Amino acid sequence: MSNDVSRRGLLRGAAALGAAAGGAGLLAACGGVKSAGGSTSAASAGGTQTLRIGYVTPSTGFAAGFGEVDPFVVEQVTKAVSKGLTIGGTIYQVRIEVKDSQSDPQQAAKVANELIASGVDMLVTSSTPETVNPVADAAEAARVPCLSTVCPWEAFYFGRGATPDKPFTYTYHFFIGVDDLAVVYKSLWLNGVPNNKKVGVLWPNDADGNAIRAGLGPILTKAGLTVVDPGAFPTGTQDFTSIISTFKKSDVEVVNSFAIPPDFATFWKQAAQQGFRPKIATIAKTGLLPEQVEALGDIGPGLTAGVYWHPSWPTRSALLGLSSADLAAAYEKSSGNQWTQNLGTTTALLETAISALVSSGSPKDRTAVANALGKTSIDTVVGRLDWTSGPVKNVVAEPLVDGKWVKAEDGPFPLDIRIVENSGYPSAPVAAADTALS
Question: Which regions of 135-252 does DSSP assign to beta strands (E)?
């Protein structure tokens, strides 16, 4: 039975947890079950305990921008469950404990193991394989339920040694995958600004790059695109002259990158200096956050990037009671910073984790919580996440569209990302059709 959580079901506080199919009473569990007269019922007879969620995220290092929204989201979610969760007659207070991975796999594993040793009930983690994979590995080894996001699902799944016949037991994930990228990229490059269909790829020798090379490359070739691959390069490369020369000699008119932000910045600046300017440049792992594009100066606007959440999406956070637009506005008002895509994924991450704790019926039982994750089907601000429908046991593939960075026409921020392609999520409104690097 899935944990089918809807906005309507969440706000019906009179329904006891588990009364509806799929346990649609998450917020009914917040603060205890109330009687008709408004007093707390005997649901609290089991006493009060604390549920601890350990959250490993890159607060510093190359991926720090992804974690920029964390304090705001953690604060909002903490407020939403501040009265506690009533589960099986016991009131559970919820504490979210944030640890910095420093964008480094060794540090991510270290703090994950520290949280596990301290007795957390669940782990959550986000943002690039460098953080997600070591945390998930630690959780799987220790038999601690873990939910993760913002890492291509093939890198999370196959990159950690799972197969469809041998899935994970305790670690679950939601994010985009190769098929989602292929839908967007094929539409963008085959149907966007006219080009010669030659795609130069900047795919590094890391979990992301290797997963993309193995999965996406053959799909693009089959679609009629010519993939020009100079080969995997090491993270931290300082001179991309040979790669740029290969692109120029091959008459590349489209570029795709999965390099980390500093590496792409180095490549893109050197490309400009050496007179290489493709007609379309579509980037991932960087270019997802406004500060990353702003750092490029005048050569930043015009870049296209995948969009896995946007304020214009017709979605809501049931736990926070906010639409996508309202969530972005609340963040910008509170922080003074521009919204980022991780505002949606981090909200969905914590909301889904809490949903699984509730629907498990026994949130101190780690196996019960892991099993609940595998049955979860929930409406979130990034869309519906349904672990009962694959693509593999531990994974949900969320929607993806493509956006183009442009100079903002108004408002306090210099750049804006406008959706230019929505074949992967037709409900996302297209704001512009121009995909050219200009």
Answer: 146-149, 171-175, 198-202, 226-228
Q: Determine the average pLDDT of the residues in 308-318.
A: 95
- The full DSSP string for 287-311 is SSSHHHHHTTGGGSTT-EEEES--T
How many whole angstroms separate alpha carbon 411 and alpha carbon 311? 15
Helices (H) and strands (E) in the chain, counts: 13, 19
Rounded-to-integer distance, Cα 277 and Cα 271, Å? 7
User: What single letter denotes the amino acid at residue 184?
Assistant: V
What is the Cα–Cα distance from 320 to 76, expressed in whole angstroms? 7
Count of CA atoms in the C-beta half-sphere (13 A) of 2: 14
How far, in Å, CA of 157 to CA of 211, rounded?
10
Query: What are the angstrom distances between the C-alpha of 20 and each of 4, 9, 26, 75?
Result: 9, 9, 11, 29
- Distance from the Cα of residue 141 to its chain's centroid: 23
- Phi, psi dihedrals of residue 265, rounded to the nearest 5°: -60, -45
pTM: 0.87
Among 63, 61, 66, residue whose Cα is nearest residue 341: 66
Report the C-alpha dihedral over residues 329, 333, 337, 341, rounded to 10 degrees.
-20
**122-166 residue pLDDT tens:** 999 999 999 999 999 999 999 999 999 999 999 999 999 999 999
* The pLDDT of residue 67 is above 60: yes
Q: pLDDT by residue (tens digit) across 69-81? A: 999 999 999 999 9
Instruction: Count Cα atoms within 13 angstroms, Cβ side, for 63.
Output: 27
Give SS3 for 316.
strand
3-state DSSP call for residue 228?
A: strand
**Helix (H/G/I), strand (E/B), else coil: 427:** coil
The upper half-sphere exposure of residue 256, i.e. CA atoms within 13 Å in the direction of its Cβ, equals: 26
Residue 171 token pair: 């670690």
Angle in degrees, CA 258, 422, 124, rounded to 5 = 55
**Could you tell me the maximum CA-CA distance found in the chain, to the nearest angstrom?**
77
Contacts of residue 191, defined as CB under 8 A and 6 or more positions apart, other chains included, come to none
